[in-house]
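Page 37, continued from 36.
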């Protein structure tokens, strides 16, 4: 049971549905979003969450899951179902594209069935084959036109139609030239089409000089459009052939529709899968946006959450400030939580976070909590909440809250979750507090789970003394009088009413009078609460500081042990190497000395020979002396913004976007990377030849690339994320092959794709200029690139 009827509106789940719809690729996927419902079946919920998680993993890994041609087949299915009806050529083409997408999804999941088992189960019933889509492509081309080869009769009719049209044009040209020579034709006029027939424009005063039929005239009446008698038969023949062609095309489309009618069950199953996978993809995209996780799902009611975040609040604050996560625990021992604290301190957000995340899970959505959180399944979620910014709710009466409480008491049980905001408010505090305490007592007796917020003093005392309910407070900075939005479980919170009134500037005598009216007991209780809160806050800060120091100490110890081990290993390596070198040097020295002695004896110590031997010994001495350390400095000043560089020792190249100190931001294709300047080298002619040589030796045939390279790149219909990689690959190949002029075909449209292409190409310093193609060859639908 979900209560009240406006439950989704009050918690903001309607906004989540809207976000999911925005992520859907088709209307049929959006229909699944509308059909999403709260469930109490734990096994079904686990399947939904697993599907969501598996598709989230696909997105996070960047795997190429098909995401094009997610069309809604509802109208197609209706047309196919009706006997004698048929689909148009463009509908068949989109249908075939969708079938190809379904087959591609099936192939992907078949290959990854062990990694994504729940998604694979969805595709198992899909029996559609590639032959069904192929039967469309055989008869319909990619421009949504029925092919001449679709039937022998159609091919014959179209050939005859083309012949007749050519004959008619020739005849029209002859008559037109004669009329021009006779100066019957207005200046600059040409043969044109009226009512599907070729006509000749004539000045009105010469209309009697040419035999034929007037089919139309200009707005001024000075020009008439005449079908000459000689062209009448040809125009009639063409009109008959066009009708015959249309009848044959309809016959072919009907025949193709009949084939698909036999496959209706297969089609419905296939498109149901496509809509469902579109819906799951939308859920995964939303999960990715809010950084959702898969918590542990418990069969029985339980609520133990770590770092929970309100998804809509998180999105609204994204980029502005960090949202404070919520840690909350309800178990069999303590099922109710009473949250108190100052106004605007986050009590209502805490309540809404609990309700919204629990509802999301039971609708099959991953939620932004730690994956070690435990989420139980409730049979009911009952809500009583008022939006303080809503005039309608501001005007709500206390009786409406009591009606809600009546429903809670009558309907709630040990598997229900109740959420009550500002419990007891709206009436005399003495009576309101008493009634609220009685309601809590009844809910505890029925072992109901829930969260309630309040300012009432008696309810805080009740929660501190009664088994089954716990106090909690929204932490508040009493020095700066600012909320901290942190939930502390185990103690009540102060409303800080007097402090906030003092900050606003109420007169001191007014505040003193208020303190007297409040009474010593209540004021003392408030002071005690604040004192405990302050002590706990100091203790928490000290604990965090100790944990941080302990963590740093562990890291230092680990680092020291690692370095010590590495030094010891390195020391042994150096000593062993030194011993080996010394041994080899000693052997060389002994051999040289023995050789010297023999040489002196053989030459009887002549002065000249002795000097020669001394020189040899000196060279041996130099081998033993330590080599001077040579320090090389790399000049970095020759690198600047816009230079094409590569990382030393690698072949991939990029463009320097900016230089800051000794670091440079470099664009490598679609990726930006920060690299040290002394690790980069500028690409010159020598380096380019070196890269080309490496490419050849590594198996890349430059000659073959030149042979297969086309100087025109067609990016029409591409998404922006596909566009950049295609442009970079095209430009890199063109630069490698030394091309002079290139063309990018992006179409006209609204000019968005043209702007994206040109902005991206400005990053290449090899681009000398960019311009539109000649108007007769495509105009601003094509960008012509001239390379330096």
């Amino acid at each position: 049971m979900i209560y009240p009827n406006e439950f989704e509106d009050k918690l903001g789940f309607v906004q989540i549905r809207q976000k999911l719809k925005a992520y859907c690729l088709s209307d049929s996927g959006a229909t699944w979003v509308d059909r999403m419902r709260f469930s109490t079946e734990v096994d079904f919920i686990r399947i939904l969450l697993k599907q969501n998680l598996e598709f989230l993993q696909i997105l996070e890994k960047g795997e190429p899951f098909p995401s094009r041609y997610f069309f809604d087949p509802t109208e197609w299915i209706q047309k196919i179902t009706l006997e004698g009806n048929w689909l148009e050529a463009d509908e068949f083409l989109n249908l075939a594209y969708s079938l190809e997408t379904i087959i591609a999804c099936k192939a992907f999941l078949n290959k990854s069935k062990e990694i994504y088992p729940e998604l694979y189960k969805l595709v198992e019933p899909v029996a559609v084959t590639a032959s069904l889509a192929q039967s469309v492509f055989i008869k319909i081309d990619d421009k949504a036109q029925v092919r001449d080869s679709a039937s022998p009769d159609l091919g014959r009719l179209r050939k005859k139609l083309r012949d007749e049209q050519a004959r008619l044009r020739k005849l029209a040209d002859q008559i037109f030239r004669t009329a021009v020579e006779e100066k019957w034709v207005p200046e600059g006029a040409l043969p044109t089409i009226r009512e599907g027939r070729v006509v000749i424009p004539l000045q009105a005063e010469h209309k009697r000089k040419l035999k034929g039929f007037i089919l139309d005239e200009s707005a001024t009446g000075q020009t008439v459009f005449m079908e000459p008698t000689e062209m009448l038969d040809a125009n009639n023949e063409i009109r008959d052939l066009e009708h015959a062609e249309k009848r044959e095309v309809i016959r072919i489309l009907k025949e193709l529709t009949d084939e698909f009618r036999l496959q209706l069950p297969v089609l419905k199953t296939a498109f149901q899968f496509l809509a469902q996978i579109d819906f799951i993809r939308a859920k995964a995209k939303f999960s990715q946006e809010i950084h959702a996780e898969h918590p542990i799902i418990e069969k029985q009611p339980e609520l133990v959450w770590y770092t929970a975040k309100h998804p809509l609040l998180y999105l609204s604050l994204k980029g502005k400030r960090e949202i404070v996560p919520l840690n909350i625990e309800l178990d069999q021992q303590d099922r109710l939580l009473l949250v108190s604290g100052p106004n605007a301190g986050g009590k209502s957000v805490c309540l809404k976070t609990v309700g919204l995340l629990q509802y999301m899970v039971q609708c099959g959505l991953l939620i932004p909590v730690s994956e070690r959180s435990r989420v139980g399944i409730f049979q009911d979620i009952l809500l009583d909440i008022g939006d303080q910014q809503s005039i309608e709710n501001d005007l709500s009466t206390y009786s409406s809250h009591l009606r809600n409480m009546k429903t809670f008491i009558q309907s709630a049980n040990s598997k229900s979750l109740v959420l009550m905001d500002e419990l007891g408010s709206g009436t005399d505090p003495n009576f309101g507090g008493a009634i609220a305490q009685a309601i809590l007592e009844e809910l505890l007796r029925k072992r109901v789970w829930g969260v309630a917020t309040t300012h009432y003093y008696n309810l805080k005392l009740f929660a501190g003394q009664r088994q089954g309910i716990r106090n909690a407070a929204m932490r508040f900075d009493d020095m700066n009088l600012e909320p901290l939005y942190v939930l502390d479980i185990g103690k009540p919170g102060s409303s800080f009413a007097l402090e906030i009134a003092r900050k606003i500037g109420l007169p001191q005598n007014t505040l003193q009078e208020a303190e007297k009216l409040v009474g010593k007991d209540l004021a003392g209780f408030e002071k005690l609460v604040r004192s405990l809160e302050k002590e706990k806050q100091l203790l928490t800060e000290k604990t965090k500081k100790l944990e941080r120091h302990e963590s740093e100490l562990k890291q230092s110890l680990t680092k020291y042990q690692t370095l010590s081990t590495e030094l010891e290993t390195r020391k042994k390596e150096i000593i062993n190497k030194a011993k080996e070198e010394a041994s080899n040097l000693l052997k060389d020295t002994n051999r040289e000395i023995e050789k010297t002695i023999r040489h002196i004896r053989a030459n009887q110590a002549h002065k000249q020979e002795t000097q020669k031997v001394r020189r040899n010994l000196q060279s041996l001495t130099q081998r033993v002396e330590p080599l001077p350390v040579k320090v090389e400095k790399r000049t970095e000043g020759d690198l600047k913004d816009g230079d094409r560089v590569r990382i030393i020792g690698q072949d991939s190249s990029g463009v320097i976007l900016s230089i800051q100190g000794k670091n440079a931001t470099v664009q490598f294709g679609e990726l930006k990377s920060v690299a040290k300047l002394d690790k980069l080298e500028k690409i010159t002619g020598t380096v380019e030849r070196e890269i080309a040589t490496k490419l050849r030796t590594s198996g890349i045939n430059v000659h073959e690339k030149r042979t297969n390279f086309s100087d025109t790149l067609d990016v029409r219909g591409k998404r922006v994320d596909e566009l950049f990689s295609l442009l970079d690959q095209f430009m890199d190949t063109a630069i490698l092959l030394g091309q002079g002029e290139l063309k990018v075909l992006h179409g006209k449209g609204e000019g968005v794709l043209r702007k994206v292409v040109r902005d991206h190409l400005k990053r290449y310093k090899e681009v000398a200029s960019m311009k539109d193609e000649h108007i007769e060859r495509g105009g601003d639908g094509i960008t012509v690139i001239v390379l330096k």
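Residues 475 and 533 are 8 Å apart (CA to CA). Flag for discussion at group meeting. The longest strand covers residues 469-477.
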